[in-house]
Structure formats: C-alpha cells, structure tokens
Amino acid sequence: MKKTLFAALLLLWSVTGFAQDETEGPNRFLQNHNLLSRSPNAGIGIKGGVNFASVHGSDKDKFGATSSHTSFHAGVFAQFGISNFFSLQPELLYTRKGYERQDSVFRLDYLEVPVLAVFNISRNLSVHLGPQVGVMMSVKEEDKEVDLEPYNSFDYGLAAGLEGSLMERFRVGTRYVHGLGDLRKQDDSGSNIDERIKNGVIQVYVGISF
C-alpha cells in the first residue's frame, strides 16, 4: 500500500510539473493575471478512479491473513472558491471498498459524502483535507450477496490527498481515506461485538470540471 501511494504521488508531481512548464512563455504574465482575477476553485464536475482498499485496526487479526482489494469509485463534486488560496469541495461518490481473505474477495459498496478543504500550494497543485461520511449499500463475498445486519451501515473517516490541475479543467489526484467507524457490530454467529476493524483506501483519480 505504501508503494502504491508513493508511486501515485510521484506521478502526480511529474504531471503537474509538466503542466507548469507548458504555461511558461511570453504570455505568462497575462495567464497569471487571468488566474488571479477569479477564483480557480469554482465549478462542478465529475470524477472517477481506482481504489486500493484494505482493513485496519487493533482487531484486524480476527479476520486472519488479509490483503488489499483493487476496485473503483466514481461520482460528482462541486467546488466553492473562498479565495485564490482556499476553497470547499463537497463530493458525492459511489465507492467500492473491501479486502481479500482466504481466497475470497469481500466487496463493500458505499455511498459517500466527503467535505474537503482545498488549499492551493501552486497554480497547478493543491492539498485536500477533510471529513467524510458514508452509508453501506451492499456487501458481497465473491458474487454472493451477504446480509447487511452484522455490519454497521454508517461509516465515517478522514480524507487527505494531493491534486494537480491540467489546462484548468482536468484534474488528476491521489487521496488516502482513513476509516474511523467500526466495520461490524455482530460476529458470524450473530452475537453483538465491540470489534476494532475499519476501512482504509488509497484512491487515484481523474476528473473534469465545467
């Protein structure tokens, strides 16, 4: 997981560096003036990408040996510019998390709402940080539907990441979402439990704003 995040950050840095080089030239002053004359962080858009999901927590060993599960997320966002440096970005995402255990894949589908503070550290690179909440929509073991009763349907956590912009409209980014809500409230036998196992996911995405 750490190698995946490092590779995604390296790719993002390279792409945004290329975008900055492309804007150098005799029109640079005019471009800077146009960017600063309005907030660069305003509009709506769509986004989607890859999830590298896993579970974490002090009781993770109760699941036995687990590994990450690669899946997807997609949705819409709106960005409200407060200043040239700061904006707020709520999103509505359909995202698939999960894990792999003993040759089985467990897929956890959520409808999530992140609300992120966006800080511009350059014209083409920004830091995203904020809370998110989610509602579990379905659980599958391989292709078999699993009863939702043992699971906590409500999830919450913190998200942090980096995003680069290309030609003002296109975005590429990476984010880590650290789940804080416990995954299950009952064990396999239906008994109530206090089990510290939570979701975690690295997201790599592209988007376009309008």
- Calculate Rg over CA atoms: 19 Å
Quote the beta fraction: over 45%
Oligomer: single chain
The number of domains: 1
The CATH architecture is Beta Barrel
Structural class: mainly beta
Largest sheet: 8 strands, antiparallel, barrel
Mean pLDDT: 85
Tell me the total number of β-strands: 10
End-to-end Cα distance: 33 Å
Regarding CATH, which class? Mainly Beta
Strands of the largest sheet, in order across it? 1-3-4-5-6-8-9-10
Helical percent range?
10-25%
Contiguous helical run count: 2
Shape: elongated
Low-confidence stretches: 4-38
Report the CATH topology name: Porin
Compressed to H and E, one letter per element, the order equals HHEEEEEEEEEE
Task: Give me the secondary-structure topology.
Layout: H1 2-22, H2 28-36, E1 43-56, E2 66-67, E3 69-81, E4 86-101, E5 104-120, E6 125-141, E7 144-146, E8 154-166, E9 170-179, E10 198-209
Antiparallel strand pairs: 1-3, 1-10, 2-4, 3-4, 4-5, 5-6, 6-7, 6-8, 8-9, 9-10
Describe this structure in words.
This protein has 210 residues and is mainly beta. It has a single domain, classed as Porin. The protein has two helices and ten strands; from the N terminus they run ααββββββββββ. It has helices at residues 2-22, 28-36; strands spanning 43-56, 66-67, 69-81, 86-101, 104-120, 125-141, 144-146, 154-166, 170-179, 198-209. Strands 1-3-4-5-6-8-9-10 form an eight-stranded antiparallel beta barrel. The longest helix has 21 residues, at 2-22. It is elongated.
